[in-house]
Amino acid sequence: MNITFVSSTERCGIASYTNHLAGALREAGHSVAITPPDLAHIPSGDIVHVQHEYGLHRAAARFSAWLSRVTWPLVVTCHTVPIPGHPQSPQIDWLMTV
Q1: 3 versus 44: which is more confidently predicted?
Q2: Terminal CA-to-CA distance of the chain, rounded, Å?
């Protein structure tokens, strides 16, 4: 299976998490690519797995539009719990309905 992760590639906890998960999937025989968030690029693969955190995807409306253009099966891991009244809570609420 071809799996594409959309994740931070900087040195941070989310990048470490993604690298460990990608390594385990490679050991299991899957093809894995990791690409940084880029709202101008729609990633491809048998599965696209987005690592979501407010700091990685600041433009909520643009990010939601980007997600709606992904035509591959999509997995989103939310690394931040939504806080009622937070300016980006609607983005997380929308993710839960996809």
Answers
A1: 3
A2: 22
- Contact status, residue 51 vs residue 41, Cβ threshold 8 Å: no
Are the CB atoms for 14 and 8 separated by under 8 Å?
yes
Residue 43 phi, psi dihedral angles, 5° rounding: -70, 160
Cβ-based neighbours of 39, under 8 Å, separated by 6 or more: 59, 62, 63, 66
Query: Six-digit token pair at 70?
Result: 């992904």
- What distance in Å separates the CA atoms of residue 61 and residue 6, rounded to the nearest whole number? 18
Enter the pTM of the model: 0.72
